[in-house]
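Handover notes (outgoing to incoming on-call)

Open items:
1. Endoribonuclease YbeY: sequence verified, structure written out, both below. Nothing else pending on this one.
2. Nothing else urgent.
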Amino acid sequence: MPNDYDISVEDGEHATLTDDEVRACCDATLARAGVERPCMVSISFVSEGRIRALNAEWRGQDRPTDVISLECERPDDPALAPGEPCELGDVVLAPTYIERQAGSFGTTVADESRLLLSHGVLHLLGIDHLSDEDAERMEELEEAILSDLPGDGTINRVVLTRHREGDDV
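Endoribonuclease YbeY structure tokens:
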């Protein structure tokens, strides 16, 4: 059973990747992370106002950001029956924010979006960057994921510091 993706775009917004690019990025991320169970993931492209509200509600940060992950289940949850799909969670992206951020990092919007989508899915899997060791592991995974995908070649080395607390553009 393949992974299942619910991709939505908030009224008045636009997606920074095609549906096929979103699916390919999520599939590559799950594969690199060693996930064998089919997963269901919701991916939403929303306004800066909406992501700011989510950031305030879920992270206590009253400001817009690039991506937020809201996890539901983990693929290794022993409560899931063998072969039962895992409802992994939601990845929420802010296209306008991402476009501005891409310009500040010298990446294309598509490359920046692939990085942030993979970053968000890794968070759903419980992979984080709170310690330097965890950040290095996450960075290595992101680099491997991006090397599995066609891209614009504007991200040669993942710079995870853009995702550390307080480093939003």
